[in-house]
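Fold it.
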Amino acid sequence: MLNNVYGNYATNNGWGSYLNNSINTTISGSVYGNSATNGGGVFLRNSDYFTNIGWITNNHANTTGGGVYTNTSHPNSYLGVGRVINNIPNNFN
C-alpha cells in the first residue's frame, strides 16, 4: 500500500486497511484518523509478514487494536522502521 488512508469509519473491523490472508504486505504511506470496532488503522486476519515503513497514527478502535489488530495473524511477524503511535485504546493487539 503506497497511498495514505485516512478519515474512514466502520461499524465492524479494520476500516483503515483490512488485510485478509495477505502475505508480505508493506505499508509505506500513512494510515491515520480511521475508526472501527477492532483495528482502527490496520486489521490483519490470517496474515503473515506485515511490514510498516509509514505512519499508523491517531486511529481509534472501540474494543482493541487502535493502530494494528491481529486476528489469528502472527503478531511476531511485524517488521518495520515506521511508527505506530497515538492510537486509542492501544497501538497493537
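DSSP finds no helices and eleven strands in the chain.
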